[in-house]
Specification:
Blueprint: E1 9-12, E2 21-29, E3 32-39, E4 44-48, E5 52-54
Antiparallel strand pairs: 1-2, 1-5, 2-3, 3-4
């Protein structure tokens, strides 16, 4: 089961808080959920659940 839903804000694990992404799609891959993201800095991409964190996790850090 996917951790995030369309419209949620997340961070790619190596990113800074100001580089959030918004979930635009959710799909099940062979190793679990993968997410279509629209990046705050522009662009789009797909990321596995293990490579994402809550947007609030890195706030202030």
């Amino acid at each position: 089961m996917a951790r995030w839903t369309i419209g949620d804000d997340v961070l790619r694990t190596e990113d800074r808080p100001e580089r959030r992404a918004t979930v635009t799609a959710v799909a099940e891959g062979p190793d679990g959920a993968v997410y279509g993201l629209a990046y705050a800095e522009g662009g789009e991409g797909w990321w596995p659940e293990a490579a994402l964190g809550e947007a609030g996790d890195a706030a202030g850090g």
